[in-house]
Specification:
Elements (H helix, E strand, L loop, with lengths): L5 E9 L5 E7 L1 H11 L2 E3 L3 H9 L6 E9 L5 E10 L7 H21 L5 E2 L5
Parallel strand pairs: 2-6
Antiparallel strand pairs: 1-2, 3-4, 4-5
Helix pairs in contact: 1-3
């Protein structure tokens, strides 16, 4: 596989039956490439609510974003969720929002293609 689709870092997972497996980490450029090849558009329906909360001066501790993948007919094919703590980004709302969007997009593509057996979204080393 092309290194654009996944990073060449792996997570080692130990299962109870004494076997070890490796998973490549799926990254945003891979999600974008898959959506582009399949003609799928990316939508973030929860952004309007988040924007209204920020405009009203409500600053949450966490930002949560939903991503929907739609075909050319507007049918939702898959969805995913991403969340981020503002503390994690030292109160930078823009960065937290972008990272939550990125996580939601990757989550939705992993669900769409059933890739969670091969790839991981989060690398815990």
């Amino acid at each position: 596989m092309d290194s654009v689709i996944f990073e060449r870092r792996y997570r080692l997972r130990f299962y109870s039956n004494q076997t070890w497996t490796f998973k490549a980490q799926f990254i945003q450029t891979g999600a974008e490439k898959i959506c582009g090849m399949l003609g799928i558009t990316v939508h973030f329906p929860s952004l309007k609510e988040t924007e209204q909360a920020f405009l009203q001066g409500l600053i949450p501790e966490y930002v949560m974003v939903r991503c929907e993948l739609k075909n050319i007919h507007g049918q939702t094919l898959a969805d995913g969720v991403g969340a981020r703590s503002l503390k994690q980004d030292y109160g930078d709302i823009n960065k937290s929002l972008k990272m939550a969007e990125k996580s939601a997009h990757i989550d939705s593509v992993l669900r769409l293609a059933g890739l969670s057996e091969v790839f991981t979204q989060d690398l815990e080393i």
